[in-house]
Amino acid sequence: MHFVENAFAVVLCLLMAAGLIAITATWRSNTIEFVGNDRMRITETKWWGMRSKETLYRSTLSGLAVMRPNGDEVPVASQPIRLAH
Hints:
Elements: H1 2-24, E1 28-35, E2 39-46, E3 51-60, E4 63-67, E5 73-75
Antiparallel strand pairs: 1-2, 2-3, 3-4, 4-5
C-alpha cells in the first residue's frame, strides 16, 4: 500500500514540475532602450533570462532600418515583422 502511495506522489510531483516548466517556457520580457538620437535597441528575453534576442533599429530619412550584426542596414519596410502581445 505504501509503494502505491509513494509512486503516486512521485508521479504527481513530476507532472507538476513538467507543467511548471511548460508554462514558464513561454514567458517573455521585452526591454526598449533609446540609444543616442537615432537608434533604438529592443531586447527580448525568454526562459528565465537564459535566451535573449537583441535587435537594433536606426532611424533614417526613409524610415526605420534594422542593423544586422555584420553591419548591414535593412529597411524595415522590406521585411516581414510579427507583432504579438
